[in-house]
Amino acid sequence: MMDSRAASAVESVFREERGLLLASLVRRFGDLDLAEEVTAEAIEAALVRWPVHGVPPKPGAWLATTARRKAIDRLRRDTTYAARLAILQVEAERAAPAPTAAPGDDLPDERLLLFFTCGHPALPAEDRIALSLRCLAGLSTPEVARAFLVPVDTMAKRIVRAKKKIREARIPFRVPDPDERPERLAGVLQVIYSIFTEGYTASSGPDLQRLDLAEEAIRLARILHKLLPAEREVTGLLALMLLIHARRGARTGPDGRMVLLADQDRGRWDRTMIEDGLALVHVALAGGPAGPYGVQAAIAALHDEAADLTTTDWPQIVALYDVLLTLTPSPIVALNRAVAVAMRDGPQAGLRLIGELADEPWLRGHHPYHAARADLLSQLGRTAEAAAAYRRALELAGTEPERAHLRRRLSSLES
């Protein structure tokens, strides 16, 4: 039986260093499947050895050494496999410069090499995100499947397909050249933000937030910002995540109960993080038309600067959502705009816009859509319709705090 210290060390190393270890192994051996397998085997070895012999002084280095040895042992046993990997490794070394470190940062950018590889334009957009979420963020295949609202088997096949494409197309693990970067950078940013959103509101489980994932996404964005300081959308994404994550301490009560924005104690918001985010927003919005992440960061900044919900600058937020809809038209942006319009013009105006989204297939399976509709119906006194919408939202909600919140709303309405 593992003691609590050993279990905590394994969990911490897995959470904080798995992606870096995986990227290091991929760079050395040129094969993602091999890297994943020996990383998992090294973790299993730690679970067996550490309770008996104690946690090593440098758990990450121990795992790295163990994983490399297991990879070499496997290649020695399979000469055909080893020969194929040798060819891939030579090609990768010819194509890629040696990894560098960001100034003042002790984390090499090997993980970003893997991000850019997973964001290669040869891969379909959804495959890029799915593969990165699975391999770099450490999400399980069911968690990635839930984030995409697809069956687990479908997502497993998608991840296998992406790995096969990388292998067969011999996509190199490297940071792209400057002329390739704009095309690839959008995919990398989307991956990082997808990790953050899973951390901000978990897709399933007993907790509303997965702070480890949110903080991992912010850490990756900080590294990317150091490597690419002139990229305004990188700055915008980092600003957006900081401004949202600053509210983390007020989003749940002491009992884990979900607390909506309107009811949050804004004194518990992280003011230092907000100030950092606001400074980055100004940079992201300067020097020309803003990108989608810069616009979303500006919206988050207006929320964080307001004293309460009623004094929030809703007209400006609606205007920013209008801009965002021209940059990235999507049902979720339209839904968020509808909620902002309801705050500006009243529930009837917001409900009319939400009604226009009723035929969007994705939103029909998205519980916040039904919850927003239920809230507005409730405000208008349309109790039976509101109750039906709350029930539908309750069927779709992923975490227990969300379900508990919806049950309370429904109970209050019915009573």
From TrEMBL:
In the record, biological process GO terms are:
DNA-templated transcription initiation
Q: Name all DUF6596 domain ranges.
A: 184-284
Keyword Chloroplast attributed: no
Q: Which UniProt keywords apply?
A: Sigma factor, Transcription, Transcription regulation
- GO terms assigned for molecular function: DNA binding; sigma factor activity
Q: Specify the domain of life of the species encoding this protein.
A: Bacteria
Q: Where is the signal peptide?
A: none
In Swiss-Prot or TrEMBL terms, this protein is called: RNA polymerase subunit sigma-24
Q: Which family does this protein fall into?
A: Belongs to the sigma-70 factor family. ECF subfamily.
State the Pfam families in the record.
DUF6596, Sigma70_r2, Sigma70_r4_2
Give all residue intervals belonging to the RNA polymerase sigma factor 70 region 4 type domain. Answer: 122-166
Quick check: keyword Membrane in the entry? Answer: no
Which classification does the entry list for the species? Bacteria, Bacillati, Actinomycetota, Actinomycetes, Streptosporangiales
